[in-house]
Amino acid sequence: MPSYQELQQRYDQIKQVLANGADATLRAIPGVLKTCVALKVLQDFVSDRMCIRVYVREKLPDEEIPPEEQIPKTIDGVETDVVVVTAFSFTSDTRTVRPLKGGCEISNLIIDIDPDSKLPVVGDGTFGCTATLISDRSVQLLSNAHVLMQNNAEHGNPIFQPSIANVPPFLPSELPKRRVTDEDRIAYITDHKFTDRVDAAIARLDVSSCCRCCGLDYRNEIAGLSVDGKPPSNKILGLRHALPGLEVYKVGIATGRTVGKVVTDDTVDLPPAKWMGKKLVFTGQIEISSADEDTYFSAHGDSGAVIIDQDGFIVGLLMGGNREVPPSHRTIANHISDVCTALGIEINMDRSTHSSAGARVDVPRATFEFQPSAETAALYAKGKARLLEDPAGAWLWALGEAHREELVTLITSHRPVTVAWHRAGGPAVFAAALKTIREGGETLPAPPNGATLEAGLIRIGDALSMHGSSALREAIAEHREVLLNAVRGSDNLEDVLAKLRPVVEPFGQVIDSREPTLVEPALTSGSDVGLGTTT
C-alpha cells in the first residue's frame, strides 16, 4: 500500500501536467465537462493507477468522434480515463450506544410523509464523530444536514439515539409526529449547511456535567473502526486531504465497518440529488470505491459517517452514493476541510501523549460513569444554575467546559496523570463533592489525610501541565494563581466566588494573573443557556 507521501508526489505530478495545458486542451473538446486526478477504472474495476479523469455527459465509440475531438489515451506520459457522469442519491442496527461514540444510529424522530413515496417515514443516519464549535467551545455531534434536518426539522430540535425500528401506520392527517418524551435524547440541532460543497450539520451533545456524573457520557472515537491495527486507532489522529489511491475506512449503521479506496478528490457537478422534494447539486466531492469488488462501501443509512484514511486521519464526511451495483458502485463524501469551514468547527482528535518511562503499574481506573438518581440530577442542576447566575461562577464553568474532554481523558487513560490523580486524593475529593451535591450544600471537598485542596490541585495541575496539550498547558499557566488563590483558605463555594469576582469582569473576562493590567477575552460559557440555537 503506497504511503500518503508517495500518493501526494504522484498526485502533484499529474496536477502539474493539467496546469501546464492539458486541462485547457481537454476542456476545449466538445462534451468535456471537467478534468481531475483519479484512479483509472478498467471494465468497472478500480485500478491502482493514477490518471487524468475526463468527465463527459456521454461516451461515444471512437469511430463516431472526429479525430480532432478524440481524447488522447495519454498526455505527457499520463493515462487518461473518460468517465460518464452518473446520478447519485443520499444514503440513509438499532442498538443503544452509551457512552456515545461515532458510527451509531441517530434520528430526529420526526415522522412525516415522504414527498416521493407518499408514505410515512422517519429519517435516520449515522453519527460521524464529535467536534467542537469554535464560537463557544461546546461539544457537537457531526452528521449530514439531510439526516438531522429530515422532515422539516429546525435548529433547537432534539436528536435521539437510537432511532425506531418501525414507523407506525399514521394517517397523513395525523402527521407530522414528534417524540414528546426525553427518552434517548442525546443532542439538540445547532446548525446545518447545504452548499455545492457540503451537506453537513451539527447538534450539541446534551452534556450536563463537567465530570459527566449527570447527563450524557461520550467518547471521541468511532466504535469498531480499528481492526488488526487498520487504521491505527478508533480515535481520529489528524486531518488531511483525500488523495486518489488512499485506503479509507468508515463505520455506518447500514453496512458497518467497510474498507474502500479514494478514486478521485474532485468530482464534476453531480446530477441533482432529491431530498424532501428538493434538488441539490454538489461538486468537487470525494469519490470512493469498495476495496471488496463484490460489496458496497456504503448503503442507505450510512449517511453522516466520517471517512478515515489508512493512517487514522479524517478526510471526509459520507453523504451518498451512485445508483450502480458493485463493482461500479461509488460512495460520495464531502471534504472534511470544507465541512469544518462551513460549520465553524474543529474535529475532536486524539491529543494524548505517551510515556515510555518505567514499567507499567496497575492503577485503579478513575471513572465518571454511573446513572444518578432523579434527586441527584435535580440537585446537580440546581448547583449548576447557582454557578451560572454568578459572573465568577459562569467564567469558572466555561473554563472547565473548554478543557473537560481532555481532562477526563488524561485522568482516566494516561498513566502518569492517573497516578497523580490518585496520589493527590482525587477519587476521595470527587466522592466528597458528589456527597455535597446530593446534600445540596456548598462545602468544598478536601483530600484525605489532612491535605489541603490547594495542595491536591497543585499536584494534579503539575501532572496536567507536563502531559496535556499546548492549549491546556497555556490555560493552566494563565489561570493557575487565580484559581489557587480562590481555594486557599476557602471553606465553601461562596468563598471561592467572592475571591474570583474582583478579577472577573462583568462580561466574562478575567485579568491575566501574570500581567495584572492585561484583560483578555474569556471563554464563552458552555452552559445550557441558548441550547440548540445557531451561533
If you had to describe this structure to a student in words, what would you say it looks like?
This protein is α+β, with helices and mostly antiparallel strands. It has three domains: 4-85, GMP Synthetase, Chain A, domain 3 (2-Layer Sandwich); 89-347, Trypsin-like serine proteases (Thrombin, subunit H, Beta Barrel); 374-520, no CATH class. It has ten helices and 27 strands. α4 (374-388) crosses α5 and α9 packs across α10 (493-500). The radius of gyration is 27 Å and the shape is elongated. The two termini are 43 Å apart.
> What is the global morphology?
elongated
Q: Under the CATH scheme, which architecture of the largest domain would be assigned?
A: Beta Barrel
Distance between the termini: 43 Å
Tally of domains: 3
Mean pLDDT, rounded to whole units? 82
Major sheet: 6 strands, antiparallel, barrel
Task: From the structure above, extract its key features.
6-stranded antiparallel beta sheet, 3 domains, 6-stranded antiparallel beta barrel, 27 strands, 535 residues, Thrombin, subunit H, alpha+beta, GMP Synthetase, Chain A, domain 3
